Amino acid sequence: MYFSLAFLLSGLALVSPVLSEVCKGQVTLSEYYIGVDKNVKVETVSCPEISHAKRSDLSSRQASGATNVCGAECDTSCFTPSGGGPDPNECHVIADALRYDSENTGTYFDVNNGTAGDNIVVMTYNSCETFFANQADGVLEYCRTDWASVIDWVAPNCQSTQNAHGGDCIASDQTWFIQVQHS
Fold first, then answer.
1. What are the E-state strand segments in 35-175?
2. pLDDT for the residue numbered 41
3. What is the torsional sign of CA 75, 78, 84, 88?
4. 115 lies in which domain range?
């Protein structure tokens, strides 16, 4: 089930003519900006055509009852063939914004779930787009600095020189994944 969702999301995101669309029929539920310059757009999105999707929220919470997946390993893969990857320097701006928010807002964020299909948090800066998708049955708590580290690894290592155009990092239990791609 996971691989079909990841494939569906990555395939639709790459052929979509709409900027920042990660799934067909995407609906933006909230939008705000983060980072020292407030230049990284954050969206919580709903993917109504994916029936088992869940609810997301990038707000910090104390005593959320969430499953903490900070520090959890994920397996990275690059999307082939080459061409059209994001600018790693622009992806690094998103990573820095996450680190800034970690210091100023809080270390953790929750990615909720529910029946509304809004289990995805998307961040965009110029050519770079990244998203965190919760596929678990419950709320996940993740570290902003961990997301930043994944971005800083995937963006420069999944480029045309590696015959790629972005990539993802999939949790070993397949309950979540992070994707980095051209916006």
1. 40-46, 67-68, 74-78, 108-111, 120-125, 128-134, 140-143, 167-171
2. 95
3. positive
4. 2-182
